[in-house]
Each structure stands twice: as C-alpha cells, then as structure tokens.
Amino acid sequence: TVDTTAPVVALNDVLTNDSTPALTGTVTDPTATVVVTVDGVN
Fold it and tell me: Fewest CB atoms within 10 A around its CB: which of 5, 12, 27, 35?
C-alpha cells in the first residue's frame, strides 16, 4: 500500500540572535522524512 496522507509538521518559534539555532517541533508520522528549507537552503 502507498501512504498518501501527508504528515502534519509544527516548528516551535524561537526569537534569537544565534545564526545557527536548534530547530525543534513535532511531526505526526514518525517514519516521515522532513526537510527544512530556510532562505532557499535545505
């Protein structure tokens, strides 16, 4: 079978001057591959 249900992803907002802050959040599918793109960079 093919899983056609997209996972729900939530990122926690962080206000910082750190140029490399840790990203935290949740995803509803523990087997999903999550790619975060910031300013055109993965």
Answer: 35
Residues in Cβ contact with 12 at an 8 Å cutoff, skipping those fewer than 6 apart:
23, 24, 25
Q: Note the helical H segments in 1-42.
A: none
Q: How much is the average pLDDT of 3-27? A: 92
E strand map for 1-42 = 9-11, 25-27
Q: Which residue has the tokens 């899983």?
A: 3
CA–CA separation, 42 and 35 (whole Å)? 7
User: Does the pLDDT at position 18 exceed 90?
Assistant: yes
Q: Tokens standing for 12?
A: 């926690």
- Two structure tokens written together for 25: 């959040």
